[in-house]
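So, can you check these tokens?
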Amino acid sequence: MKLRNPPSRYRVRIGKNERVLEVGGGSNPHPRANIVTDKFIESNYHRDDDLRLYPHQKFITADGNQLPFKDKEFDYVFCNHVLEHVEDPQQFVSELSRVAKRGYLETPSLIGEHLHPKESHRWVLLEIDNKIVMYEKEKVDFQLSLDLGSLFLEEFLINSFAYRIFDGTYPNLRRVMYEWKDEIEVLVNPTDKYYREYFTNWSREVTKKVLPARGTKREMIWASGFVLNIFKQKAKRALSGNKLQTPTKAQFISFK
């Protein structure tokens, strides 16, 4: 079931001694993860850069549809920008909820996919009524358009503090950010017209449902909380001294 929509993957509640997995960590795994998995070692087709790990992390090559772990072996699992790539979403999310008690799931939203579309993304997604709803692109006639990723993901996020505040104040504009417990409710290619309308006939009514108005006071709280979190994360990184690195041989482990 859904717990909440965290404003960031760095603002989730994980106990100090809890065991944490990340599925599909790619080049930017969460620093709290103890174990990181990825299906593709050599190819960067599904990610932006080479694999990276923090010094304390261990790495396992694994398919997210068949994870080599026991039931509920982990207290928490991160899955960040992976679901939009997979072939069998139902099996994939079933595995996440099988191996972990709760977790955090993030993907591009439908809006994010229009702003910075990727050929490697098979699916477009939205959260509707506390469910993750996803369609194969061809089923909703999604057309690859001009990729503005260099503007929204690089130029603005790096060089515009004002844009970063806006992006942090509306984190669910470009993303689906979903914290869950026990199981993840996902609808794959639903035939119900109610869901399809969100993906094919965007309107003011849909906007109000997907991005409900919060009012000036709550906007200020979100914006100030985001700015404060930026400085907290910078301080944590500076104090920890941990930096992402190319995985060493000692970090690779295997299951027989």
Remarks:
- The helical segments are 89-99, 110-115, 149-159, 161-169, 171-174, 193-200, 204-210, 216-240.
